[in-house]
Amino acid sequence: MLAGPVCFIVSALVMAGAALWYPEGPAHINNIAVPIALFPAIWAVLFFYLMLDKKLGRAWTVALVLLAVHTGLIGHHFYEVEAAKKSQAAAVQAEPAK
To answer: Which of UniProt's keywords are assigned here (predicted)?
Structure first.
């Protein structure tokens, strides 16, 4: 269970969260393209770690910490985007009509 679906879900969230912490680059697409291209490597490293670790508790801890950190990053990003939209809408409404 740990090295199957849990590994895939954690790898997918690490890939999605990497778009937030990986630098954009000159074309502004590196933060999206690189994590997608590295997804097989992320999955393979996590899979082999989870399979070969001798302590199952430590393997679960590593997987859950990665899951929690990247879920928090993604959630925080969505929260910031929504807050920016609300503040922008409030600024537009507060602006007097010309």
So the answer is: Membrane, Transmembrane, Transmembrane helix
